[in-house]
Every structure is written in C-alpha cells, then in structure tokens.
Amino acid sequence: MGSPMTPSSIPFSNSLRHHAIAWYDRLPTNSIHSFDDMIRKFLSKYFPPSMVTKLRNEITKFEQKQHESLFEAWEHYKLSIDRCPNHNMLLVTQIDMFYNGLKLSHRDTINAATGGTFMQKTLEECYELIENITAHHNHCDTSAIRDETSRNISSTSTTESLEVVRQLEMMNKIFSR
C-alpha cells in the first residue's frame, strides 16, 4: 500500500502521473526511508541505464539542425537535458556541448554579444547570455538569420545589416552591465 508519507515525499507523490502512481502505491511498506531513497528507486524504475545512455548521448552529441534558429536549438537542447534527469553532467559541460554543437554563424552571434570569447565568461554569465539572446531571437523575425548560411554576404541589404548590428549592440549593452 505504498510507503509511509513523510513531509518531503508528499510533493513528490503529488507530482506522479498514471503508471508512476501505480508504481508508488505498490512499493512495499517502509521500503523508502528518505527522499533520496525514493528518487533512486524512481530513477532506476523509469530511467534504466540503457535509457540514460541513449538520452545522455542526445545531450553530448548535440548538433544544431540545418534550418534551426538559435532559439529553437536552445529549446531543443534544454528538452534533451530535461528528458534525462540523472545525466550527471556539470553545467560547464552542458554549456560547452551546446555552444560547440551550434552552427558557426550562431557561435559568432554569441561571441559578438559577449564582446569577446563566450567560453571565457563565468557559467552563470554564459547561461544567462544564451537565455537572453534566445529570448530576443524568439521575439524577432529569424527568417533572415536562418537563411544566413546559404546567402552571399554581398546580397544582404543595408537595412538588414544595420538591423543586425543594432541588435548586437543592444545585446552587448545588456550583457556588459
């Protein structure tokens, strides 16, 4: 009839859905002695080693898709991380994998917004920078950015170039505070 409820297990048990509720209810009485016990049992049941390996590979082998915007790539990457709660990767590794999996044009955008070399910033600065840039990219028309790699630079209109420069200057001001 499930393990006894403790104050720390109540939020966990209330967050369970469908099969996980049945799993929790079938746990032998007194089989869980701490919240960490519950987490370990839950992860071993729903995230066996083979699945963790597959999901971890999605994270470590991240590569931005051909027509994926920076925002879409970041959201796609964060979903990969969220799908593997026990990936055990440090934030520095996660940021490095994301940055190195980006198309060169988007790495250049991030470096320009940084005002230098992105990977020389602190982890918190790197994460916040990506969040802010992708939030901005999501709110503007990214169709020109998506086609950037397939266009010749000389075909870019002056208005478009000035807009990109203006956006980069604005991002640089935000991040230099």
UniProtKB/TrEMBL annotation:
Keywords from the named record: Nucleotidyltransferase, RNA-directed DNA polymerase, Transferase
Q: Which GO terms describe its molecular function?
A: RNA-directed DNA polymerase activity
Protein known as: Reverse transcriptase domain-containing protein
Domain of life, per lineage: Eukaryota
Short name of any one Pfam family annotated for the protein: Retrotrans_gag
Q: Where is the Retrotransposon gag domain?
A: 12-103
InterPro entries (UniProt xref): Retrotrans_gag_dom
